[in-house]
Every structure is written in structure tokens, then in C-alpha cells.
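Weekly sync, protein design subgroup
Attendees: M.S., D.O., the rotation student, P.L. (late)

Item 1: inverse folding check
M.S. brought a backbone from last month's batch and wanted to see whether the design step gives back something sensible before we order anything. D.O. pointed out we never logged the input encoding, so this time it goes straight into the notes. C-alpha cells as presented (145 positions):
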């Protein structure tokens, strides 16, 4: 019985640790716009999503369009860094939110749901992964601790 209890506790602890490290692109409605700067909260303390508008008169984000992930050392695989999450604003401009980690916690990332990420190779040989899910939260990744 003691072994089962330890196993269940370890399983629970692992699930909590995994959940606390999972991030995804924020929903368009969760992004705030103040003085031309778009921001959205992150699930990890000290980290945030941020973009600066290039439009003369910035407008609120309307729809999520997709996300880009850069694999480490340009090698195919699920470890690397999130490039950006792309949105369409009401004025039809495109806004790319970037995931900003606190300086003390610069860590690599890993896909949380590989089925939504597709590899794309540019004409110059750069390998990136795109997520074109209709829902922003389906473009998820986890922080590698």
C-alpha cells in the first residue's frame, strides 16, 4: 500500500510540474493594448507575451492566425524556441507576439502537442515549425527546466 501511495504522489507531482511549465499562444481577447504595446500574461511568473505595433493607430487584436517555432540548431525536432504567435488586428494589420522570458530564466522549449506543429523548410534551408490551429491554446509548448 505504501508503494502505491508513493507512486500516486510522484505521478501527481509530475503532472503538476508539467502543467505549470506549459504555455500556449494567448487568445486574441486576452491581449491588452496600451500606448501601442500589446501584452498578454504568461503562466510562468516573470514571463510575458509582448509586441510593439507598427501601425500609426493600433487596433485591438481580432483573430489568432498561427504560430512559428524555431528548432534548436536548425535541426528537425521538438526542442527549440517559440518564434512568435501571429494575430490579425481589426485594422487588418498583422501583429506578432513574442514570448519574453525573464533574464534569469532563459530556457529552451519543447512542443506540448506535436500533432499541431508542422515542419516547413525555407528556400534557404531554414527549418521552422508552424501551428495553424484555429484556437490559440492548441499551439502549446512547455519550458524545459
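Designed sequence read out in the meeting:
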Amino acid at each position: 500500500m505504501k508503494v502505491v501511495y508513493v507512486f500516486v504522489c510522484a505521478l501527481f507531482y509530475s503532472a503538476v510540474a508539467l502543467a505549470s511549465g506549459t504555455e500556449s499562444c494567448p487568445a486574441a481577447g486576452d491581449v491588452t493594448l496600451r500606448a501601442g504595446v500589446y501584452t498578454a500574461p504568461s503562466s510562468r511568473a516573470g514571463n510575458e507575451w509582448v509586441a510593439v505595433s507598427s501601425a500609426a493607430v493600433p487596433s485591438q487584436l481580432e483573430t489568432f492566425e498561427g504560430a512559428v517555432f524555431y528548432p534548436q540548431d536548425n535541426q528537425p525536432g521538438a526542442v527549440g524556441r517559440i518564434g512568435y504567435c501571429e494575430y490579425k488586428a481589426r485594422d487588418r494589420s498583422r501583429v506578432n507576439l513574442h514570448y519574453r522570458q525573464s533574464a534569469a530564466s532563459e530556457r529552451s522549449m519543447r512542443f506540448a502537442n506535436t500533432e499541431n506543429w508542422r515542419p516547413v523548410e525555407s528556400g534557404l534551408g531554414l527549418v521552422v515549425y508552424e501551428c495553424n490551429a484555429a484556437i490559440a491554446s492548441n499551439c502549446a509548448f512547455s519550458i524545459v527546466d
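Discussion: Helices lie at 2-20. The chain has one domain: 2-143.
Action: P.L. to compare against the previous round before Friday.
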